[in-house]
C-alpha cells in the first residue's frame, strides 16, 4: 500500500481536507510534513510531522522518507523532480500529475520566471484555488488511489 506524502507548508486547506477524507475512506497512510504543526483530525491514517525551521527542511524530510510507488502531493517543482527521480508519483493540489515527461520543462519555466522576477519584471502570481481546482484535485486523487491500492 503506497503512502501519501503532503508538502503541507503550501497545501490549501480545502486540498488538505480532501486528502484527509480520501485517506480515511481508503485506509491509506497520509503524512502532512511542514515546518509547523498542521491542524489535523485525530486519525489512524492521517499524521502530521513538524520539522525544524530550516530552508527546505520539510522537503528534505519528505525526500528521505519517500518510497518508490508513494504519492507526493506538492506544487514545489524542485521537490517534485527529486520525488520523481526517487520513483514516487507526484500530483499538484490542482490534480495535475507530474512525471519524467513533463517535470524538467516545468522546472525550467519556473527558473526562467524566477530570473524574470529577480530582474524586476512583474510576472504575477499563481491564480487562486477555485472550485474547479478542488474538483479536479479530488477526482485525480480518487483515480490515483483506485489504481494504486
Automatic annotation (TrEMBL):
Signal peptide residue numbers: none
CDD domains, per database record: PIN_YqxD-like (cd18720)
Source domain of life: Bacteria
Pfam families: DUF188
Alphabetized InterPro entries for the sequence: UPF0178
UniProt record similarity statement: Belongs to the UPF0178 family.
UniProt xrefs under PANTHER family: UPF0178 PROTEIN YAII
Protein name as annotated: UPF0178 protein QC820_06285
Amino acid at each position: 500500500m503506497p503512502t501519501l506524502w503532503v508538502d503541507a507548508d503550501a497545501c490549501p486547506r480545502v486540498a488538505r481536507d480532501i486528502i484527509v477524507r480520501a485517506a480515511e475512506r481508503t485506509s491509506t497512510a497520509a503524512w502532512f510534513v511542514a515546518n509547523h504543526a498542521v491542524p489535523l483530525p485525530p486519525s489512524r491514517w492521517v499524521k502530521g510531522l513538524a520539522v525544524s525551521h530550516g530552508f527546505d527542511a520539510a522537503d528534505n524530510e519528505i525526500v528521505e522518507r519517500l518510497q518508490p510507488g508513494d504519492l507526493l502531493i506538492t506544487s514545489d517543482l524542485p521537490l517534485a523532480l527529486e520525488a520523481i527521480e526517487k520513483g514516487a508519483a507526484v500530483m499538484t493540489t490542482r490534480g495535475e500529475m507530474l512525471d519524467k515527461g513533463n517535470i524538467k520543462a516545468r522546472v525550467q519555466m519556473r527558473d526562467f520566471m524566477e530570473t524574470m522576477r529577480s530582474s524586476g519584471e512583474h510576472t504575477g502570481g499563481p491564480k487562486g484555488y477555485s472550485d474547479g481546482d478542488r474538483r479536479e484535485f479530488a477526482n485525480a486523487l480518487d483515480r490515483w488511489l483506485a489504481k494504486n491500492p
